[in-house]
Amino acid sequence: MSATLPVLPLAHPLILLPTGRVTLPVSRRIGEALLHLVQQSEDQPIVAAVPLTSPDSSLYEWGTASRIVRLIKPPVRNPKQPYLLSLNGVTRVRIVDDLSSDLSSGIVHLRVEYPTTDGVPSPENVMKFKAAALKLLNQLARDTSQEAKRESFNKVAALVEEVSQVRAAWIADVILSSTNAEYQDKLDFLSAANPDDRLSRATALFMKQSSISEVSKRIAQSVDESLSKQQKEFFLRQQLAAIQRELSNLQRSSSPLTTGAPSSPSEDGRPRSASELDEDQQTEVDELADVKVKIEAMAKDSEERKMAVREWKRLKRIPQGSVEYGVIRNYLEWLVAIPWPGSSTTAPSTSLETLRDRNFLKKTRQQLDADHYGLEQIKKRLIEYLAVVRLKALQADRETAERAVVPQAVVPDTASEDPAKAASRRNTVKGPILLFVGPPGTGKTSLGQSVARALDRPFQRISLGGVRDEAEIRGHRRTYVASGPGSIVQALRKAGRSDPVILLDEIDKIGQSNFHGDPAAALLEVLDPEQNHTFNDHYINVPIDLSQVLFICTSNTLDTISAPLLDRTEIVHLSGYTYDEKMHIARQFLLPKQLKANGLAPEQLTLTDSALIHIATHYTREAGVRSLERAIGGVVRYKAVEWAEHLDGPADDAEKIAKQYKDVVEADELEAILGIARWDAEENEREERRGVVYGLVVTSMGEGGILPVETIAVPGSGQLKLTGSLGDVIKESGELALSWVKRHAYDLCITTSRSQDPLKYPSGINVHLHLPSGAVKKDGPSAGIAMTCALVSLLTGACVPPNIAMTGEITLRGRVGAVGGIKEKVLGAHRANITKVILPWTNRKDVEHDVPLEVRSAMQFAFVRTVEEALEAAFGKGTLGWRPKDVLLESRL
Ligand SMILES: Nc1ncnc2c1ncn2[C@@H]1O[C@H](COP(=O)(O)OP(=O)(O)OP(=O)(O)O)[C@@H](O)[C@H]1O
């Protein structure tokens, strides 16, 4: 039978077998011709899909009559895209026309012949075909890892088994059209129209396919084998190392005479390796053995143990030289180094014993007194705190003991215990978290150390100043190159116990949330008793229980600490020392410490009281004692050199007497030893000037001091200019002060009528108000009265003496409101030789409670309620010429 069919050439190496299906892109021209065809015919039109045997050759003699099942036009917005054509192969056709027809002009119509493809193949051929097909299909099903594929192979296999003799050739077409046989084989198969012929070709092809897949499997297997050989080698090497270790142990224990081996143990008692080249290998083995022991010591069924075992197994599988090996080993070393509470290698806690001691509080007091002078309030607070810690620990201990006594059946299962309850039980061991706030050098860190000593726990300090990256606290994930755990885990490892005292230094300087995460939030998790029993370090990746750790925080100021963090702490203020306290600290602690550090005996150097006070007043001006310690250190070092020269000096008696060593340092020698006193110059500079008044401040370091408020008048039109890195609040204080002064300019006799603006009368001026140290940021409302006094001084010409300093917020109505940091400010003023301070009336109690008597008695205090009272206290009674009160106006107001 023959017919004329439109011929679709299939680009090399595409081929469509009967029963197969293909989707291919076709050019616009062919697409349009096919579309025309589709539109013309009622049914799915038939085309002859004929392969091109090579990219530029003519048509193959055989093709497949196929139905067009779908033709997709390119989208309108992109007409250059090809058409998409889906064909379904129906039956073989042979072209009986000219095979070299010109195909470039689009679809050509050629005469084709339908060969007789039906007929029953011989049973022998069918049997062979079935066997080959089943073998291949089973093999394919076995080798594939995809479940769906396996199922479809099995289905086809079932079909093959059941297929009748008549349909056998058809199923050969089905299988071949979906397996990836070679192109040439498929072409041959296409040309086989006779069923017997088709079956025998298919059988040969299937056999070829299954032998190919067998060979490739064998290759894969041999690759696998060679890999496991590497692993085998690794294990053998490990065993070899172990055998070598045992052998050298044997050698060591037997006498050198009998063995004749020159083996001597090394200093640490380990056998010395035969060659130094083996030393590394030996330590490696020892270290790994150590890790193993520690893993075995971990609590059974604990998370950390599971993780360690898993990683250990992985380590053993990996070749020793690989990068991954190093990473896992490093991780394991960290994991086992953490003092896990349940591990038998973790140092046992002695603190419970210490807490049980009846004299615990007495001893603690003695410890605190031995380490620090003064600080009565703080020591009292610490004793209270430690008493609470003790009570709670003992209570928790009692509860545990009771739980152990109750028969097993009644004891609630800990695993099924409510986690909240478990947490609260854990929390009972702890008190609140202490936060020491104060200027540098006031003993915050050393108080933390004293607490650790009193509790007999290891002490670790983590400095948080400048920590911008969350990973510094929490560690980097293991996927990072050179990752490691965060500072908390490092501190725990160094402490070696699960209950150390950890001092988180300078929490006010921790970075805020940024693209490196939020370090403050990580810290919050560390400190929060609700969360910290499952602290998650990114590197370790096993929850770590921090509930036994006693955290103490220090900071210089409270301003930059986030509210949630503050909320979790109990604040203890250390405001700084008076001169008297500094003298005692210097004599009892700093001088002996420096003498010891510099190799002098106490009898070899004495500093007179006047010398010590001179150092404290003229060479240092700080709330704490760190500079004082440094200056004393300077004096001691100077004398140490003199002493050394004296010892090494000439033997000649006369000269020796001339170079006599003097063991006392007087105040007048200090200039020769320490240089010119820094603070002398500043004091001399302070003078009485129009428009300048001294305010009281607390710096960002928490240290009190004085700060001049300077004002000048420049020609202008009544503007106020504020400079000195001022924040919004302090700027508003400046404007408030000016408004008050303008409002009272007439009363202060600055203007001659109420309607006149003092900045415009008698001539136009601008006022420039500046707070020096321009680079330091300043803010807050407490400079209100100082600014008002400075403006009044500028506009009236009256001056405030330089020994007066003041602080206080003002309101628009002229009231003076309370401010904070009174103790720091007054102590700072005292250090700066201020003799009179003006403070808000409402801060009276702060002075009485907080300021030491020694300072109170050395200074004069003026507590004021209104700006008028402040002006009177600053300028002196009667200095400012107040106009008699305008009774009428006041009553109208
Ligand atoms: N009351 C005191 N008695 C004895 N020594 C003290 C006292 N206060 C501070 N010191 C000593 O002063 C030195 C500085 O103290 P420390 O390092 O504790 O200061 P700090 O407040 O932690 O400072 P920073 O805020 O800068 O960390 C230490 O050598 C400490 O022993």
Automatic annotation (TrEMBL):
Keywords (A to Z) from UniProt: Hydrolase, Protease
Domain of life: Eukaryota
Protein known as: Lon protease C-terminal proteolytic domain-containing protein
Lineage of the organism: Eukaryota, Fungi, Dikarya, Basidiomycota, Agaricomycotina
